[in-house]
Every structure is written in structure tokens, then in C-alpha cells.
Write a structure and sequence with these properties.
Rossmann fold, 8-stranded mixed β-sheet, about 400 residues, 3-stranded mixed β-sheet, about 30% helix
């Protein structure tokens, strides 16, 4: 699934034409020619690759582990020695299915890191920040198809980052206490922390902090729609590009609490609070069972929690209080290819990726819907039919 360099170049050219303005950490001794950037937390050293300056694995928030595991992202502890930023950080915990994550990608709950590609640490180039997709349960900032070299070669500072996924990022624990009121939007708060980091630090990487365009695909675009509806995110971006996402894909508090109740039941714990202490593997195992349940892939999404998201994003966007920023909206014809890439035939599509999800949308008429798609597009084979259905 690696994007060919030519395709990446065409994508970059298209995006730039749409913009009003061309837009495991170790302490290391910096080599004389190594690029060093001073962040608000401390200095980092990157590398020069093919004429592009790359910084990988820069932390933008404190590790969400231990007592911070289910809480909003916290500020970093500062450091004084130069910190190596030459290797990608582990991805956030997720199902290791091969088509959901680049092969061999390590994972860790300590995963709030970002990467930058730039022509150099001097200057003030336009900045683009990408929010990856993956249904809020998969993906990372180190996936090879998100390499930012093609953007940097055209004078853009490109930033990718990771945010918490699945139950760790999007499970509503508000019934367990006031400290968890916004836990259903921990992933969204991670995204806000990353954008705040960009505003405060990107000048040190050759970027213009007053010229930041955020773009996202699929769950990344849905996240951006939610950020447009979150007053606390105002001022963290200047332009937005939504690639195949909708502001309507958010959960109500009632729905998210039903998901948590089902999660508790499937986890087999005696009390809801015991979920807090489940291991990473236990959380992921229970999440897989949720995907097989009536909730399917609607279990983990941004939540209208009354705090981070006071209301549905569409309502805020339609009101005078909505953010006054340029927005480009588009759709991807093959939106579902990411999920169906390895499926040769529709009949082989795993139950957890297909039937429960479809029935959650159209009820018991799922078989009718499949038949209608096949009748409408007889030229498509089974896998292509499934891709069209899932993409719509």
C-alpha cells in the first residue's frame, strides 16, 4: 500500500493548488552537521535525508501511562540535553491485523509523538499537519504511505502525529467519576495537544506558526470535523482540508455509555472500575469482541460530552459561533480500500468488518442492500462491490 513517489507528488501538487498560500527517545550528542531544533521542552536533533531535514519521534505530550492512562494529555517534563529525534516512536496500541498497520510496527501506550519533514530549520515555510485515518482504532504517523518528503521538497513543513486509539482514546468512562468526564475524547484532546505543539514550536523547524493547514483522511477528517466543533480547538489551525470524513460521525453520551457497559460485560470484570486496570492486551482483546457485537465499528468515535464537544459539530458549524476558517471538503472514491485491500471476495469479508456494521446502518435489510449494489453495478466483482458499499 506504499504510495508511489509520482502519486505522492501529484497529491502534493493538488493540495498546494487548493491553498490560498503555498502551504524511543535517547539523549544524543549532535554531529556537527546534524540539524538541531530547540522546542519549548528542550533541544532535539534530526537527520538530513536526500536533502530533506527529518525529525522523527518528537514527544508532544507526557506519556499517557500509569495514573495518566485514562486522562487528558499532560504537558511534557522539560529536558536540557540534546534528544535524538531520528527514529519513529511506537504506534499507539491497536489490533495487529496486517492490513491495519505497517508490518513489524511496534506499539506502546507511550505513543504521543510527532514527526516533521522540512527543507531546513531556518525560514518560515507554510505548514501542513496530517491526521491519519484508521477508524479510530488503527493507524500511525509512521506508516510509510505518510512519508512527508514530497511535501518538504515543495517548500512545505509537513507534520504527522499519533493519537490514542480504540478504548484508550475514545471510551467514555464518565460513569466512573468526574475525572473521566472527557475520557471519551482523549484522542481528540491528544490531537489538540499536537496542534498546540505546532503553534508553539514549528518556527524552530522552519515553519510559519501563523500559516498552519490541517488535513485528514477518513477518521482523520472526522476528527477535524469534531475539532471544528470544539471551542477549545479554536485558534489551533488556519485552514482545514477534509478528505472523506463527515461532521455527523460522532456519538451521543447515551450511546458511548452503552458501549462502555457492553465493554465491561465482554471484559468479564466484576465491577466497571476494574476496566481501568486491564492490560493493553486485555483491552485490545475486549475491543475485538466489541467489533463483533452490535456496535461493530461505531464503538469508538468522538463523543458529545458537554465539555470538549458541547454539541454536535454540525450545529456549531451552522451557527455564527463556528470557526471562521477556510475549509476544503472532498471524498475518496475508494475510501474503503484500506480495509478491504486483502479481501479477495466479498463472501470472505470478516464478520466484524462487515455484517454487524451494515446491520447497524440498515437493520435486517443487509442482504437486500448487498443485492441492490450487485444489481446496480454488475461490472464490479465481489471485492469491488464490498469496497463500494463500505466506502459509501
Amino acid at each position: 500500500m506504499k504510495v508511489p513517489r509520482l502519486a505522492a507528488s501529484l497529491l502534493v501538487g493538488l493540495m498546494l493548488s487548493l491553498l490560498p498560500v503555498v502551504v524511543s527517545p535517547a539523549i544524543a550528542a549532535a554531529e556537527p552537521d546534524s540539524p538541531v531544533a530547540q522546542t519549548t521542552s528542550g533541544p532535539v536533533v534530526g537527520a538530513v535525508e536526500g536533502g530533506i531535514t527529518v525529525f522523527r519521534g518528537i514527544p508532544y505530550a507526557a506519556p499517557p501511562v500509569g495514573a495518566s492512562r485514562w486522562l487528558p494529555p499532560a504537558p511534557l517534563e522539560p529536558w536540557s540535553e540534546v534528544r535524538a529525534a531520528t527514529q519513529f516512536a511506537p504506534a499507539c496500541p491497536q489490533d495487529p491485523d496486517p492490513h491495519e498497520m505497517a508490518e513489524g510496527t511496534p506499539t506502546s501506550e507511550d505513543c504521543l509523538y510527532l514527526n516533521t519533514w522540512t527543507q531546513g530549520v531556518g525560514g518560515a515555510a507554510p505548514v501542513m499537519v496530517f491526521i491519519h485515518g484508521g477508524g479510530f482504532i488503527a493507524g500511525s504517523a509512521q506508516d510509510p504511505w505518510y512519508d512527508g518528503a514530497a511535501f518538504a521538497a515543495r517548500g512545505v513543513v509537513l507534520v504527522t502525529f499519533q493519537y490514542r486509539l480504540g478504548p484508550l482514546g475514545w471510551m467514555d468512562l464518565s460513569s466512573l467519576g468526574p475525572e473521566y468526564t472527557a475520557s471519551g475524547n482523549n484522542g481528540l484532546q491528544d490531537q489538540m495537544a499536537a496542534l498546540r505543539w505546532v503553534r508553539e514550536n514549528i518556527a524552530a523547524f522552519g515553519g510559519d506558526p501563523a500559516n498552519v493547514t490541517v488535513f485528514g483522511e477518513s477518521a482523520g477528517a472526522i476528527s477535524l470535523s469534531a475539532l471544528l466543533g470544539a471551542p477549545a480547538a479554536d485558534g489551533l489551525y488556519d485552514r482545514v482540508i477534509l478528505e472523506s470524513g463527515t461532521a455527523g460521525t460522532v456519538a451521543t453520551r447515551e450511546w458511548s455509555q452503552r458501549v462502555f457497559e457492553r465493554f465491561v460485560e465482554l471484559a468479564g470484570v466484576e465491577t466497571p472500575a476494574e476496566v481501568l486496570g486491564l492490560s493493553t492486551d486485555e483491552l485490545l482483546d475486549t475491543a475485538r469482541r466489541i467489533y463483533d457485537s452490535e456496535f461493530a465499528d461505531t464503538a469508538f468515535h468522538p463523543v458529545v460530552d458537554g465539555t470538549i464537544l458541547p454539541d454536535f459539530p454540525m450545529r456549531r458549524l451552522a451557527s455564527p459561533e463556528g470557526p471562521a476558517v477556510p475549509v476544503v471538503i472532498g471524498t475518496n472514491l475508494d475510501e474503503a480500500r484500506y480495509w478491504l485491500y486483502y479481501i479477495a471476495e466479498l463472501d470472505r469479508l470478516p464478520v466484524r468488518f462487515y455484517q454487524p456494521w451494515l446491520r447497524s446502518l440498515v437493520g435486517e435489510r443487509a442482504d437486500e442492500v448487498i443485492a441492490a449494489y450487485r444489481e446496480e453495478r454488475p461490472d464490479l466483482d465481489a471485492a469491488q462491490t464490498g469496497m463500494a458499499l463500505a466506502g459509501d
